[in-house]
Amino acid sequence: MTSSPRPDPDVPLSVGRLVARTVEVPDPGPLLDLLPDPVTNEVGPTAWLRRGEGIVGWGTAASIRTKGPTRFEDAVAWWHEVSGSAVVRDQVEVPGTGLVCLGSFAFADEPGDSILTVPRVVVGRRGERAWVTVIGEDELTPPPALATQPPPDSTASAVFADGEVDGAAWEAIVASAVERINAGELEKVVLARDLVATLDQPLDVRAPLHRLAADYEMCWTFHVDGLFGATPEMLVRRERGLVTSRVLAGTIRRTGDDERDLALAATLARSSKDLEEHEYAVRSVAESLAPHCTSMNVPESPFVLHLPNVMHLATDVAGVVPETDSSTVLELAAALHPSAAVGGTPTETAVAMIAEIEGMDRGRYAGPVGWMDAHGDGEFGIALRAAEYDGTRVRLFAGCGIVADSDPEAELAEAQAKFVPVRDSLTRR
Questions:
Q1: Residue 14 — pLDDT band, cuts 50, 70, 90?
Q2: pTM: predicted TM-score of the whole model, two decimal places
């Protein structure tokens, strides 16, 4: 497949004042079944789903690519301009209706680009209600007839190989980080590695999206501009003045034996290493959200989140944003990024160490990914259990939190477990 040409990253794609019209529709069935074939149509499908609810979209009404240290500020300024001049006719008025954009952002200031895009068609579901939004320049554009599309081609086979750093070299990098942590340079650093899959035909991303949504229904399945995955971690949700964030840090691999896994969950909940890692992550989120909130609820201890392949220590942080704070969900995501869960503690030192020793470009892996509406409400997760693709090449990512008593061999095994969701989504029939 020949990729669609990308516009100049410094020039936003927009066509004047946008008109968004949302109408309620009968239940259209599984939302992913509505996405057109991106291999033949190149319609730029987007998705943000959890347990059958969320939004999918296709086409492009407007978009902007940003990069560098001002990538968030530039995207927010553009969105204020676009949403401020738009005409919005919303008959449904629930989260995800009206004018919406979807975006994903680079982990680091350099290198990597970020994108915020407004689909031409958005279909969503929340509870018992479903809707379709048409976005363009014509107020009279009728909503499209929604129909289940032919199933995606899932016959591709894949050959996997180490990415920038092989397993043995990555263990050495982890060992070096542990030495520097014990020498007092920092408390925690999150190190990632990549795995490259070469397919025998261009990827129809709908196939792995279907599998991820089915297998990991407690996660948020996403696709924006060639980045897809199923993240268990909600960086920030803003909805009518309430802000929430799900923090994950501390992981143990599941065995598939329920009794054994319950014992492992108890071990995880008592692990001083994992509790320490988790405390850093929760503290970084709470401290970043505090300036925007009049009150906050930070649980004293985490719970164990059970996923099909791993278990995590998890904490849900909540806060109330006053009417005097106009911060959008994207601005809150920018304030939180990078949290200790994907960067480390102290943040500046950890991010510098990642750039120094990790040995690869993360791209948009571990950056914010999600959606936002014209009011600034929305959801941004962290792009974990994720991959970027272009044609027949798919680059998978996984990372681990490294603290003073981390064992390099165990961390490599954890990273391998975190590859499983996307790896299986590419190869399972």
A1: very low
A2: 0.90
Residue closest to 216 by CA, chosen among 3, 423, 6, 367: 423
Q: First-to-last CA distance in the chain?
A: 22
Cβ atoms within 10 A of the Cβ of 385, count?
30
Whether the pLDDT of residue 274 is over 70: the answer is yes
- Evaluate whether the domain defined by 19-427 bears CATH number 3.60.120.10: yes
Catalytic residue list: 188, 233
409 class by beta-carbon count within 10 Å (0-12 exposed, 13-18 middle, 19+ buried): exposed
Mean pLDDT of all residues in the chain? 91
Task: Quote the CA–CA distance of 188 and 208 in Å, as a whole number.
Answer: 33
Residue-range domain boundaries for the chain: 19-427
Average pLDDT over residues 66-93: 95
Pairwise CA distance, residues 426 & 420, whole Å = 10
Note whether 117 and 18 are within 8 A (CB): no
Which residues are CB-contacts of 262 (< 8 A; sequence separation ≥ 6)?
none
Greatest mean pLDDT among 320-324, 337-341, 386-390 lies in 386-390
Contacts of 165 (CB under 8 A, 6+ apart): 173, 193, 194, 358, 359, 360
Statement: residue 130 has pLDDT above 50:
yes
Residues contacting residue 143 through CB under 8 Å, at least 6 positions apart: 21, 23, 25, 121, 132, 134
What's the CA gap between 120 and 387, in Å, rounded? Answer: 25
